[in-house]
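The material for today's practical consists of a large collection of protein records. Read left to right, the C-alpha cells trace the chain's path through space. An example says more than a description, so a record of this kind follows:
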Amino acid sequence: MTKPFILGLTGSIGMGKSAVAAMFRGLGVAVFDADAAVHELQGPGGACVAPIERAFPGTTGPQGVDRQKLGAAVFGNSAALKVLEQIVHPEVAELRRTFLAENSAAPLIVFDIPLLYEKTGQHGLDAVVVVSAPAALQRTRVLARPGMTPEKFAQILALQVPDAEKRAQADYVIDTGVSLAETRHAVQQLVHTITAPQN
C-alpha cells in the first residue's frame, strides 16, 4: 500500500495561507491545521489546560487557556516560551499521528504549519509549499486586521524567517498576489502534479 504524500504548507503572516488551506480542503484534500489543533488543546477540557495552569498559574479558566494572559506571560521571555512549547508540541504531534492514521489511504495530506521554517522543521514531510505575496500586499492585509499596529507587525515579522528565504527553500510556491481564480488554479495544478499516477 502506498502511503500518502505529505505536503507541508506554510507562509508568513498575511500571505494568504488560510485561504490556500481552504482551497486544498475544497478539493477534498485532508488538511491538518496545527493552529486549530493548538486551539483545541487549549480550549475547554483540552489536554494542555491543566499543565499550562501548573506552569503559568492564573492563565486558564472555565473557557480553557486565556490566550491574552498566557501571551503576556510568555511574550519576549524565551525560557517561558520553551516551557510552553514543551507542553504543547508533544500534544500536537499526538493529534497529528492520529490524523495521519485516519487518513492513511489518502493520496495527499497537507500539514498546515505556520512556523514550519521557524520551529518544526521539515521532518516527516515529502515536500513544502510556501504561500507568498508581494510585501506591500502582505502589509495591507495584516494592518487591516483588528488590533494590529505597524509596531506589532514589525515584531511578528522579526520573529519569522523572511519570505524570500522561505521561497528559496520551498519545493513549491503558491502566489496569492494574483486573482483568487489564479491562486485556486495553481492549487489544483499542484494537487494534480502530486497525485497524478507516475508513468
User: Anything to note?
Assistant: The longest helix spans residues 78-102.
